[in-house]
What does this fold into?
Amino acid sequence: MLLTVSGPPGSGKSTNAEILAERFDLEYISGGDIFRQLADERGYTPVEFNELAEEEEQIDKDLDRRLRTIAASRDDVLLESRLAGWLAAEHADLRFWLDAPLDVRAERIADREDKTVPEARATTERREQSEAKRYADLYDIDIHDLSIYDAAINTARWGETVVPDMLTAAVERYDPEQDEGKQPVEGIRYDF
It folds into this structure.
């Protein structure tokens, strides 16, 4: 089984992806962890590294090629990243998008990063704009197009114990033999 969990910063994707991977005994691979590690190794904050990636497109391409290769060659994996659903594409059994209103996400980020809410909001908005531009330029991906996902969930609508149960129920009830909705992701340039 190959699952993907995607969403913007502060949406709960990492928390929910870790729980889902544990529940189904899947290897958990986080693109965000890899990206933050690369940023730290080069002495940048994630926001600074995002902005640098606008100038050095190979930063994104190296990370994305790794995630795409994993999706194409391995089973029993849960990929979590902003582009996981796009990169896994036809290889994914199920692709989930998690989101929440920006104010909620900014509060979550402020709590976990010990920032003020206005600071977290400004940083998050800047980061999202940077990423959206890069994804469009590099791969023709419109990150706001949710049509490739099998389920999109506003995590602010339910408590933190409910969303993992919703995702778990979807995976448990998924039957590949009955799946008439699996479609390839088209119009993307996988030019790494």
